[in-house]
């Protein structure tokens, strides 16, 4: 359709024609340029400001340039190390639960023969992924509420608990609840990625294993797992990376409490940067968080690439 | 394969055990438990939202007299219907901007060589991997400086930062699956490069474009961190932020909070129900290189 119109004017005449010639000659700039400019404005500008702010002393009135001040505070502040510890527990817990449950779901879904039934299950399971993160938080906050929560009610009615337990008032159980809430929203993603991995395994491999007399367990160990490894890495990295920087779920479930027991680094940064307006310190902690994420992610990606090459050979 | 280290009898027993594990009863039990775990918190919110405040305090399982009063308290008395409108406007505007910018960019990365092309692509990936919480503090200052605090524009700009790199990456992966021969054929037939993209390649990638659009809309809809940082004011705050604001109350009106939560979840749930396939394609398409 369009080809005919163009055929008549390979070299444009008039202003419009010249413009279209120019666009044709600079196609990469025209199609890519706006995105890069946008990313520059919305990413580079704040990112540079982050580095700059982290070198400022913003405690008290005004700002003074003191490069070592905030970074020095990081390492001497015990609440910072508390946040690091909680972040590690939180992200590891969520990683193990999400990928573990995701694998079980993916294996089960892969065995469902009817595609309509499989799609129904997938849809129901995907729903928690689409729930806004703050809604995830308030939902779990509500269910585990000490006085009115349904979890206490059910446990008491079943005779498993004598009286109401303050789930979010105790450090250990509060951490357990936020990890559960976090996994709840991440399991669908892990399941979808792992299912895609399972579906890419050629049926011949299973047939061959059967011919060789392999047991189901051996087939799983020697066929399924090696093929699934890249999907595992992807699901694991992404789940961990997003749990490591988690803000909305711990913030809306417990607000970081009780007494900092669920204060992840992101909640910690928000407390200093937005609530206490100590921009400099919050920025220095952000630089630390960004650094850790990028080092782990880069190392991991290289690792994955090597693994994938091995498998494809 | 080396001989098994156990007898034929043991082999058969193990095989039976594993076959039982793989039976459809076990498969459906696992899936049923998963669906129960995923859906029950939302069902509980739905049930709560139909309760009277007294029923909430009485710890009943089901509302004795179902009522929509909680919805009225949340949406009308508190005025949170405006947050719903804000959410729709912000998510739609963000999606349109991100798709218009990101689709051509993904096309360029899938087709053309240019100086520093790999470096530029790594930069895009880098912005995707960068933890957004790191940018919140400077972004809050920038938004304050430019008078964008408590505005929808401030939230839309944040959404562009958050989802543009993702869309560029996903769209590049979709474009890569389309043979370059298609572009060349269009060019031979007299299309300009823009026309080859617009009329020949783009229609083929439409399912991928739909997946990108749906993902961006959902991600913008459920975003909390930046929306909360930029606005807690009825003129511009989103519905996830509005729902969270109940937490600050002295005595939380749990039924009204549940009603607001259900209102925030319904659009997400509908998108998932109708576009489940596209979401799966988008989530996995964004990962494969």
Question: What can you see in these coordinates?
Answer:
The complex is a heterodimer of chains A (313) and B (289). Chain A has 313 residues and is mostly helical. Chain A has one domain: MetI-like (MetI-like fold). Helices cover 77% and strands 1% of the residues of chain A. Chain A has helices at 2-7, 14-25, 27-54, 69-76, 78-111, 115-130, 133-143, 150-157, 171-199, 203-211, 216-244, 248-253, 265-275, 279-312, and strands spanning 56-57, 64-65. In chain A, strands 1-2 form a two-stranded antiparallel sheet. In chain A, helix 9 crosses helix 11 (216-244). The longest helix of chain A is centred in the N-terminal third of the chain and has 34 residues, at 78-111. Chain B is built from 14 helices and no strands. By secondary structure, chain B is an all-alpha fold. Chain B folds into two domains: 10-70, no CATH class; 80-247 and 261-285, MetI-like (MetI-like fold). Chain B is flat, with a radius of gyration of 25 Å. Classes of the chains: A mainly alpha (313), B mainly alpha (289). At the A-B interface, helix 1, helix 2, helix 3, helix 5 and helix 6 of A face helix 1, helix 2, helix 5, helix 6 and helix 7 of B.
Radius of gyration of chain A: 26 Å
Helix content of chain A: over 70%
CATH architecture of chain A: Orthogonal Bundle
How far apart, in Å, are the first and last alpha carbons of chain B?
34 Å
Shape of chain A: globular
Number of strands of chain B: 0
